[in-house]
Design goal:
Number of strands: 12
Largest sheet: 4 strands, antiparallel
Order of helices and strands: HHEHEEHEEEHHEHEEHEEE
Length: 305
């Protein structure tokens, strides 16, 4: 069992630049395995540090975990079919060879990679196979303890759309205390880019530092989206209090931001006094007009001559 821990630790140490395994191909699957849908063999892997691990490194990590499992049959072909990174490497999808291996990898939920515990779960759209869930292979408890994880399976499903929203929130900042009417989105983007380019030693070339700057509330505040979360974190430290058009910027995390790495709490848009939308008061009720009076015709009396 110790071989599994040694193999996993070696993969963790070389995860960022591990050599690719032999080319994986769906044709290597046995006929019986073809009955399983991709969703049943696929895993969502989240809470990764952006740009800290390559797709090949992630494949190598999961392959090493499978290779040393006592009940894994390596003669059936590569354990990992594919690994695809998303959002700059902040989360990924890993396709396993079999349903049993996918079920087994759920036991490694919480395994630390680059200082963060991985979140391993089923992707959105997963359905249990008609014959029922495939039981996982055995993972000895001493191996889980050696890797520092409990073996407890994570969430049953993962909201991928929510993950996209969270990823954007983590690379976005609220920028307040702007001079209304004096700062445009292009001006703010260029200014922020110059400030960060000086600290980073370049403007990012083909990967711009600032993706977008959107002015709101008549120019009183804005939301600036950066290329990744580490850049946004650096911008938070550099820009808060920075002078622009004679006023100090008030920079914080946007509403809905969720810290995934245990970093110290940063100011948020609400704590910086960002105005929030207030619905207009309801229109006053108008009393209905009274119906018009009804006049009855009255015959005039005849005048006597």
């Amino acid at each position: 069992t110790r071989a599994l821990g040694v193999a996993a630790q070696a993969a963790l140490e070389t995860a960022g630049g591990a050599p690719a395994l032999e080319p994986a191909a769906s044709s290597l699957l046995l006929p019986a395995q073809g009955l399983a849908t991709k969703k049943q063999r696929e895993l969502y892997v989240g809470n990764l540090t952006a740009n800290a691990i390559s797709a090949e490194g992630l494949r190598e990590l999961f392959a090493s975990l499978c290779a040393a499992l006592p009940d894994h049959d390596a003669s059936r072909g590569p354990a990992v079919i594919n690994a695809q990174l998303c959002e700059g490497g902040m989360f990924a999808f890993v396709e396993m060879q079999t349903e049993a291996l996918a079920s087994t990898m759920l036991r490694f939920h919480g395994l630390e990679v680059a200082g963060r515990p991985m979140k391993i779960g089923r992707p959105a759209g997963y359905l249990d196979p008609p014959h029922g869930p495939v039981p996982p292979l055995d993972v000895p408890m001493e191996v889980l303890k050696e890797l520092g994880i409990s073996g407890q399976v994570g969430p049953a499903r993962v909201d991928v759309l929510g993950q996209h929203v969270d990823a954007r929130k983590r690379r976005e900042l609220y920028v307040g205390n702007l001079t209304a009417g004096a700062v445009s989105g292009v001006m703010l983007r260029d200014h922020v880019t110059r400030v960060l380019a000086g600290a980073l030693g370049g403007d990012g070339g083909g990967n711009p530092i600032v993706r977008n700057a959107e002015i709101q509330a008549g120019g009183m505040f804005a939301f600036v989206e950066f290329r990744d979360e580490p850049t946004a974190t650096m911008a938070l430290a550099l820009l808060n209090g920075h002078d622009l058009c004679g006023r100090p910027l008030r920079v914080g995390r946007p509403a809905g931001y969720t810290d995934m790495g245990g970093a110290p709490e940063a100011p948020t848009a609400a704590s910086l006094g960002a105005p929030s939308y207030q619905p207009p008061p309801p229109a006053p009720e108008v009393a209905p007009r009274p119906p018009p009076p009804i006049y009855e015709s009255v015959e005039e009396p005849e005048l006597l001559g």
